[in-house]
Amino acid sequence: MRSAIEGPDATRRTLLKSAAIGLFAFQLGGVDAMLSPAEARRRGARLKILSPAEAAQLEAFGDALVPGARKAGIAHYVDANLARPHSQSLLTARYLDVLPPHDAFYKTGLAALDGAAAAAFGKPFAKGTAAQTNPLIAAMLPGQITPWAGPPAPLFYLAVRSDAADLVYGTRAAFEQLNVPYMAHIEPPSDW
Q: What predicted TM-score, i.e. pTM, was given to this entire model?
């Protein structure tokens, strides 16, 4: 397999710097390329961990929690981090002390959300309307969603919402769009 990141400059340090500025290795037509999650989504990069159905559901759920998460590439962001070693993951689940592997956390959470959607309105969460999905989301935070056969619903809600918020609002450009001064405690090396 060819790689757009191979060559004399493709050192581990180069890859780590790319990840620090929000670029991840995605596969496009058999070639690895360093892309932002939004660009990977836009260009149809292959997912490594999530199935297409799980990605669609994560996009629908993430976008319902934080508008703009789908366009920002929430499914590709989560997928890229699930494919990384646990110690390099940027997912909120890592900081909430969710035991690895985190793919099990996201996959069982998405399956539980799909099960609750099927029970509530007879179709997958991603195919529901806002009027159908909003009551399910509202029931998650207090842990009142039923049926639920996954990680604790409030924890799953918090993890996905935090991942989506980091992706959508975690840049200087996002702060400018919100007309909020960007005052980082520690300046990041670059934006996403």
A: 0.83
